[in-house]
Amino acid sequence: MRASTHRPGQRRSNGRGTRARPPAAAGRLWPAPWIPRSAPHAAREDRRRGRCCGGSRSGGRAHPQGDRVLGFRFANTPEPDEAWSRKHGMLALVHTPGLARLRLSYDEATQRLAISLDGELLIEDGLDAAGRGRICGAVANFVKDLPESGLKGHPERLPLRLVGDGRTSRYQDRPDGYVTIHGRASVRALGKALDDPNLSELRFRSNVAVDGLEPFEEQGWIGKTVRVGSMRFRVHTSIGRCLAPHANPETGQRDRPILTTLTHAFGQEKPTLAVGLVPEGAGDIHISDEVVLEG
After folding, report:
1. Against a cut of 0.70, is the pTM above it?
2. Which residue in 184, 244, 183, 265 sits closest to 219, CA to CA?
3. How would you class 144 by CB atoms within 10 Å of its CB: exposed for 0-12, middle for 13-18, buried for 19 or more?
4. Paired strand residues for 183
5. What is the mean pLDDT of residues 241-265?
6. What is the mean predicted confidence (pLDDT) over 254-276?
């Protein structure tokens, strides 16, 4: 899954499941408030397998292993370092699209984080107190010079705090987390509406991508059960979109009107792409796992 760089598929019209697929890229800072994904999310050691922590039909925790294990939090965000907080209390693509230009690698065994900008190393350091401070200083210096920045005009947000233990997934969009999944046909349809056939699915930062669906077919899964390989998930909700996917994942420029296109071209009341799943237990999924809608 995203935390382990996997993405699968679902049932075709003939009733057979499609197969799990890998994401187009991994190991980059993404638009969200965490590490390594755009305000960093965590690096993956095995690109072929993803582990998901447990949940239940009625809810529960849904944290892919390695997903959003670190984050850059503002100084004036009141939550303690080990606690969850909303993304608006952290560096995130929603207000700092230029974060997409950053690339990172993270070694969980040694707990060393390296961040690069335009092919040049920006900072590499450990996760001890001194190392976290140096990493935060380097990232803050980069962010302060961006034309759109969550730090601009907000001196009270400095110094940044690099939070998380580098192992525990906790900084998702809701406290209990979701495993997120989108159909690649949905991204292709959106790209067609935008006159951009190469629209990158990385804008949407899903854990799992599905081949073999009709555009936005996954939105009809809400309240149903999906099996990915041997794991079962309850499809809990649609994923509403903020400004984060407007940012080009290579350049950090807001270059596509994703939100208005979703509402105007597809008749959505609120801009939506992908769905959130809660697992019924812990387990692994793999690239090319069969994904079946069980009802």
Report:
1. yes
2. 183
3. exposed
4. 210
5. 97
6. 97
Amino acid at 25: A
Element at 234 (helix H, strand E)? strand 231-240
pLDDT at 22: 41
Q: Which tens digits make up the pLDDT trace of 78-91? A: 999 989 888 999 99
Q: For residue 27, with 0-12 CB atoms within 10 Å meaning exposed, 13-18 middle and 19 or more buried, which class applies? A: middle
Dist CA 234 CA 59 (whole Å): 8
* Domains of the chain, residue spans: 2-293
Phi/psi for 266 (5° steps) reads -120, 10
What whole-number distance in Å separates Cα of residue 268 and Cα of residue 216?
Answer: 11
Strand order in the sheet with 120-126: 102-107, 112-117, 120-126
Q: Is the torsion defined by CA of 148, 154, 156, 159 positive or negative?
A: positive
Average pLDDT over residues 189-215: 95
Task: Using DSSP bridges, classify how beta strands 179-183 and 208-210 pair: parallel, antiparallel or unpaired.
Answer: parallel
The two tokens of residue 72 are: 């850059």
Peptide bond into 64 cis (omega under 30): no
Asked whether 90 and 172 are in contact (CB, 8 A), the reply is no
pLDDT at 173: 82
Residue 6 has pLDDT above 60, yes or no: no
d(CA 127, CA 122): 16
Closest Cα partner for 40 from 113, 149, 126?
113
C-alpha pair distances (Å), 4 with each of 1, 20, 64, 114 = 5, 12, 7, 18
CA distance 182 to 191: 14
Residues whose CB falls within 8 Å of the CB of residue 77, separated by 6 or more in sequence, listed in order: 85, 89, 90, 161
Sign of CA dihedral 284, 288, 292, 293: positive
User: From CA 8, how far away is CA 75, in angstroms rounded?
Assistant: 38
